[in-house]
């Protein structure tokens, strides 16, 4: 494990030259937690795998360029790494971190909504199986977003299998995971998702152990076969707070198009007035659009866009965007877009 041996006593802001070339900065979910992505005024985005000291800011929060401070850190393996801090552009949208026991949306909060643009990303992977793909596979994109204020401080939702935490967490539920910045200091008695140095993963309530070098992993299920386990503190690689759980939204079946409007419609003047710029992104089913708003977080539009020759992150002329409404045989209405590069 890398150990930090020194850091510069004073953090430094971005240079004026850097700021002049950057359009905006957003928090992303990187391999080691939250980091930064810069959308450049020219060229492709720059993905900065600096960890960012912004534990209460959800993914896709826009960060003020003038507030970003970089600390240079020297590690005992000879590497130099960087850490960042920054303030959100729109603080009114943030959910503050708070403690509390596990909450299940069926009994303690209002109905969450499934969204294509707001809330916390849901990845259709099992924490016990392919969870690492969220951080390590650049092609991995959310299935959709879950907007539920009670849990919007989570970094992601994912699937959970197994019966050890029933009836609090049931087999097939989805869980909201919050970031734990330190595996050496956290409240006992809460439920955590744990990744070990050997790649094993489990979800358990953590309690103190009589041996100060161990934790006790306590299942909720009191049936025979589910026992308290002991785990050395030294083998815990990463931890997430399980903020809540709920039943999985019904998966959308494959849609067959019944009809589409004969004429495509442009964006409304109201929409265009609120959008700063539009870019092509790589969506789950091909290329789609992301709108950078003049106020608030980006809107990720999972409309397929008819622009096969445009690479990802091509900026699209907002006035050229045309939307076609499509009716599916399952009763849903979906949309398709077309547009011209700026």
Label this structure with key terms.
single chain, 342 residues, Umud Fragment, subunit A, 3 domains, five-stranded mixed β-sheet, 4 helices, 29 strands, 43% strand, globular
What does this structure look like?
This protein has helices at residues 16-21, 105-108, 133-136, 269-274; strands at residues 4-7, 12-13, 22-30, 33-40, 46-48, 51-53, 62-63, 69-75, 80-85, 103-104, 113-115, 120-126, 144-147, 156-159, 174-179, 191-196, 201-208, 214-218, 229-232, 236-246, 257-260, 265-266, 275-283, 286-293, 299-301, 304-305, 315-316, 322-328, 333-338. It has 342 residues and is mainly beta. It folds into 3 domains: 4-89, no CATH class; 103-246, Umud Fragment, subunit A (Ribbon); 257-338, no CATH class. Strands 10, 11, 12, 13, 14, 15, 16, 17, 18, 19 and 20 form an 11-stranded mixed β-sheet that branches.
Short description:
The chain is built from 4 helices and 29 strands. The chain has 342 residues and is mainly beta.
């Amino acid at each position: 494990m890398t150990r930090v041996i020194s850091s510069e006593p004073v953090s430094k802001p971005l240079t004026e030259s850097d700021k002049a070339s950057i359009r905006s900065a957003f928090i992303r979910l990187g391999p080691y937690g939250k980091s930064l992505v810069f959308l450049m005024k020219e060229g492709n985005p720059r993905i900065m795998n600096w960890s960012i000291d912004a534990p209460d800011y959800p993914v896709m929060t826009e960060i003020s360029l003038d507030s970003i401070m970089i600390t240079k850190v020297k590690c005992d393996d000879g590497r130099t790494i960087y850490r960042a801090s920054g303030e959100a552009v729109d603080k009114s949208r943030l959910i503050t971190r708070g403690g509390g026991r596990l909450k299940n949306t069926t009994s303690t909060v209002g109905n969450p909504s499934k969204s294509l643009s707001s809330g916390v990303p849901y990845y259709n992977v099992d924490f016990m199986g392919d969870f690492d793909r969220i951080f390590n596979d650049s092609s991995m994109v959310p299935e959709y977003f879950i907007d539920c204020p009670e849990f919007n401080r989570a970094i992601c939702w994912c699937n959970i299998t197994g019966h050890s935490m029933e009836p609090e967490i049931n087999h097939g539920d989805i869980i909201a995971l919050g970031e734990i910045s330190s595996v050496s200091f956290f409240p006992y008695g809460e439920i955590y998702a744990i990744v070990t140095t050997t790649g094993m993963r489990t979800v358990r309530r953590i309690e103190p152990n009589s041996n100060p070098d161990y934790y006790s992993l306590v299942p909720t299920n009191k049936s025979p076969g589910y026992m308290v386990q002991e785990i050395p503190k030294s083998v815990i690689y990463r931890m997430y707070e399980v903020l809540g759980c709920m039943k999985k939204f019904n998966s959308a079946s494959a849609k067959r198009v019944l009809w589409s409007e004969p004429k495509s419609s442009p964006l409304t003047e109201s929409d265009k007035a609120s959008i700063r710029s539009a870019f092509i992104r790589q969506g789950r089913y091909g290329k789609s659009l992301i709108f950078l708003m003049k106020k608030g977080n980006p809107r990720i539009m999972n409309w397929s866009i008819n622009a096969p020759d445009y690479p990802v992150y091509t900026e699209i002329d907002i006035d050229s965007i045309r939307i076609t409404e499509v009716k599916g045989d399952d009763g849903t209405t979906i949309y398709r877009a077309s547009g011209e590069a700026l």
